Amino acid sequence: MLTPGVVLAISGLYLALLFVLAFATDRMAANGRAKLIRSPVVYTLSLTVYCTSWTFYGAVGSAARNGAEFATIYLGPTLVFAGAFFLLRKLVRISKTHRITSIADFISSRYGKSTRVAAIVTLIALVGTTPYIALQLKSVATSLDILTVGKTLVSAEAHGIFGDTAFWVAASMAAFVIIFGTRNIGADEHHPGVVAAIAFESLVKLAALVAVGLFVVIGLKSAGPDYSGPVWLDPALRGTPPFSAGDPSRWTTMLFLAAAAIVCLPRQFQVAVVEVTDERHLRTASWLFPLYMLLISFFTVPIAVAGLGIVGPDRNPDLYVLTVPLQAGSDLLALAAFIGGFSSATSMVIVACIALSIMISNHMVMPLLLRSRRLDLHQARDLTGLLLAIRRVSIVLILSLGFFYYRFGAQSDALAAIGLISFAAAAQLLPAMVGGIYWRGGTEQGAVAGLLAGFVVWAYTLLLPSLVRVGGAMPGLLTDGPFGIAFLRPEALFYLDGWGSIQHALFWSLSLNVGAYVFVSLASVPKPLERLQSALFVDAFGESPRRTSRAWTGDTAVEDLMALARRIVGPERAYRVFRDYAESEKHDLRELVADARLISFVERQLAGSIGAASARVLVSRVAGGETISLDEVITILDETQQAIEYGRQLEQKSSELEAVAVQLRLANARLKEIDTIKDEFLSHVSHELRTPMTSIRSFAEVLLEGDRLSPQQRDRFARIIYEESQRLTRLLDEILDLNRLQRGDHDLKQARIDPATTAHEAVAAMTGFAFQHGIDLRDEVPDRLGPVLSDPDRLKQVLINLVHNAIKFNDSAGGHVRVSGSVRADRVVLRVEDDGPGVSERDRARIFEKFVRGSSGREGSGLGLAISKQILEAHGGGISVHPAAARGAVFEIDLPLAGAEPPAAPAETAIRPALKGEHA
Amino acid sequence: MRERRLHEFAFLLPWLGVFLTTPPTILALASWSRAAGFPVFIVYIFAVWAMLIAAAFLLARRLPWSDERQGADAPLSGRDGANG
């Protein structure tokens, strides 16, 4: 038998070792040398905080009572980690992006950074974890009693508070957590020292259990008369519970509970999601953590069988891990097992305390402080001290709660029962959490309703009965129901009787939880911020991994933001935050602008210390209210869910710019074209004027100097000068005419005429010219076409010009020119068709411009068609050119029919050409 | 294409595990256990467990765990919100 002094001394040394380890690691981490701590293996080992003393001792007890059921506690997490690539990776990704500090922070962030949700989750976590902490303290005290006295004393009665080992364990745990868990207000709640201690402890407990297991499997012979092999293979023990499969309905429930617990227990969330330094650590953890669990439970069945064989079923099976080596006379092994159990207990208490203290300070105390307005933000006081003090007080409070629960409550229950109660509380967080990252529809109100429903039912059907049993008060409550209402019996709610209490409680609590969550969510309208957060959470693997809410639209002064950050995270970190931001944005620190990006950046930095909900409240005080509107959210949550708002806006802007640029390019091209046309016009005009001028000048010179000229020559030269000046005048007239027509400043006579008559006259006038050129000119215009309002002289001018061109440019021998007319809809159409060279497609578009003569470039002023066009447009008509069926071109003019009514007012005809001119 | 298959298998794995470790599958094995007088059930559970670990190990090496960034311990880029 070991003396209490020795065991206590060894426990004390072990704790001291933990302190040294944590201290050294923190120092190394501060110097940036803690590479090992950031390794995936250490991360995986820290996850094994899941294996508490409940499972260290309790798994064997469970196997001895209920058979294979113990495996579910590890199989559930194995299934979750086998799918780590999906669920856990998403949790980690979201948490890193949003700087999540705890599970309460996670759920509250998802539902619009809700303070209410965070507080409820914290409450559930606190109420659910306290019995579990009590359980750890109890296991330490009990195992110590077993080791030193040989039997379980009821510690609370045997010792005073200060004589109780559990008190000292709790006190040293409080010291440990305060020293290493609240060294500073972290940027993202990383505690390297704590992680190192936990990882170390995980190895200790694995080694201890494997040692006991190997001892049982190899070393422990049966003392029975007819069997001398290893105890665990004794045929007499074949039929005992450890070899049985257990109760399948409990099996499924426990499997589910364990799977839920591995993500929902606050301490698991803390180590698996908050403390993780690299998302890729999950790659290793996805198989190494299940492997650890397989190893630690590998010898459970042999130990349980051996316990039943040599210790006996009448002793507490939960302590077989200790009592089997003791019974076999191996005190040293028993001591190792004790240390293993001790480390399981301490690691759980440490992590649970850190997780809970963060939650309590961020989600219960901070909101109260913020509400009380005591926290005057315009004071320059540093709040980091206050925050740390709150955390430290919370830690003491949590451990006190656990300790008193242990002293007064946790005496009679089997270990497994308390553990499952705690698991069932954690499972209440599952719908809001998993629903929140896969279902956009979940709202804050839905989450509140679901969490509260689940929590209340859990407390009523599971916690209350366990308290009643322990306390011994009101036993009628369980057998007859409250006030004798059997319908409401806590363990047979709504007459659901005959099930195990865990299955019963889990069924009702989760059904109502999920039901309330889903239906209230569907019935409520989410706030804009909730919508935004839900999209960011559900779409965490979207295009931009770093994208977070950018809900701030208001402006504020950088100084105010900096002052706020300084107060929450301390001056040094605050300075680094702003400097990092400035660097990443390539700004000068002094020239920062407090835009939405900076505000949300600061908000997220603060969220990493005090939780999203409190950070939002604080920043909103400085930034003058969060002014996100539904429209903005919809803008942010674009149709594809993939593109981000910023990129999308840029895209939109650039496409707008592109459209404008295209317009500008078109306008520029048009301007250039017009400029070219103007230049061409000028050069044409000068050219056209120069040719006659040159001949006039040269002939005039000849006349002036020509004394030896014969009178005939003199006459001829004078006639040339006369003709040339006439041509000049005609050209100038045409130019002036064209300009007048273009300005709409014309003197058109408006008469009701039949264009057929005009056409006949024009053809008749051109017959001689056609004959000269050997062209067959045919008049196929009908006698009557219809009345149009027109200036007959001008119309004739147009037709003559067209026919003249058709004849002049017709190079084919014996060519034909055909003039025809018809009425199409409400317009009179006249066509001049030739079989000449035609008009090329390029020319067709511009042939009606001034001085454009067609690419064949022959004589003529190049103004005729332009004038024709202007004349027709002044009449509300038009002119176009098409290729003829075989060879040549068809010029087609059309004029609106005047109808039966009297001549329209000249004003109308004056407006139309102007309108037409716009489109020309 | 291969990565897509891998993804799908990774998604299937936990569900396969659920199928193998819940009733009715385990009910059959529990019956065998009783009939055989040998803890078939325990052996089965540990075999499934080991299989899941082996499959998770093989998958873990091939799946793209951090496709989009260089891990969270890279210094915070500060590019918040937009993909910058």
From TrEMBL, chain A:
It comes from Propylenella binzhouense. Residues 684-899 form the Histidine kinase domain. PANTHER family: HISTIDINE KINASE 1, TWO-COMPONENT HISTIDINE KINASE. The keyword Transferase applies. GO terms for cellular component: membrane. SMART domains: HATPase_c, HisKA. It is a multi-pass membrane protein. SUPFAM superfamilies: ATPase domain of HSP90 chaperone/DNA topoisomerase II/histidine kinase, Homodimeric domain of signal transducing histidine kinase. This is histidine kinase. Its EC number is 2.7.13.3. CDD domains: HATPase, HisKA, SLC5sbd.
TrEMBL record, chain B:
It comes from the Bacteria. The chain crosses the membrane at residues 38-60. Keywords: Membrane, Transmembrane, Transmembrane helix. The keyword Transmembrane helix applies. The keyword Transmembrane applies. This is Uncharacterized protein. It comes from Propylenella binzhouense.
